[in-house]
């Protein structure tokens, strides 16, 4: 890990991930559209590039933690003549969540231009990112994956090779399906306890002591108890992931009944103006449905 490494995308997840790299002594050059997000990285010893193009001039391996396919294409100049020169002789590491089809086509274009490509989505939200407890899923050529692995150690608790592209992204979507339905179920259970006047601290304590406890349930149950909607994974991000999973399911002619219900609930939450809140804000949609049901129950018969 002697060469300078690039990191583009310092959002909710990207900033703590890049900070962990810088604090581990990796020679890092970073860029973010909102330049103020770069300040903690500069304080940690990273170089702040003036442009995304400048990152590629300084680094051979470039990590992308970007919101969607459009952002990736823009940073790489994929629709321009500059794309080939940007990616040639570089290893591009795609750490965000996009469709598997997009990743497959991106790999083909990068390889054709003389670059290398590693698919590397991660499982976790802001807190695991801060604590270097993410789980990475890797796909790509063996040599490229091996070159990227050492850089994952400061960011991730585990890094699992999943095979050829797009197997890592499909694995991430499978994990996200479980995450979305699990947290939504936890939120509905908390609402049930509240409606029945149960001791919410006792409810959380029983969950934590029982067989269903996990790091996710502990974090989300504590946030529900405190009515803390500060973002770790936002409603809009979860809704985007929900849509990606559903699209992949439909492409495989697979039913996804639980996921489809979650999609409706997260859409309703976003429509209420809670799109930037943490995913536990889905409780707002559930509460609204309860209020609507209660209103219907009090309407007298004709």
Descriptive report:
The protein is of the alpha/beta class. The protein has 14 helices and 9 strands. It has helices at residues 14-23, 39-43, 52-58, 69-76, 83-87, 100-112, 126-130, 142-152, 167-195, 200-209, 215-226, 235-251, 257-274, 282-297, and strands at residues 5-8, 28-31, 47-48, 61-64, 91-94, 116-119, 122-123, 134-140, 156-161. Strand 5, helix 6 (100-112) and strand 6 form a beta-alpha-beta unit. The longest helix is centred in the middle third of the chain and has 29 residues, at 167-195. The chain is globular. The model has no long low-confidence stretch (mean pLDDT 95).
Termini, distance in Å?
76 Å
Derived structural class: alpha/beta
Helix content: 40-55%
The largest sheet is: 9 strands, mixed
**From the alpha-carbon coordinates, what is the Rg to the nearest angstrom?**
21 Å
Low-confidence stretches: none
Number of helices: 14
Q: What secondary-structure arrangement, pairings included, does this model have?
A:
Layout: E1 5-8, H1 14-23, E2 28-31, H2 39-43, E3 47-48, H3 52-58, E4 61-64, H4 69-76, H5 83-87, E5 91-94, H6 100-112, E6 116-119, E7 122-123, H7 126-130, E8 134-140, H8 142-152, E9 156-161, H9 167-195, H10 200-209, H11 215-226, H12 235-251, H13 257-274, H14 282-297
Parallel strand pairs: 1-2, 1-4, 2-3, 4-5, 5-6, 8-9
Antiparallel strand pairs: 6-8, 7-8
Helix pairs in contact: 9-11, 9-12, 9-14, 10-11, 12-13, 13-14
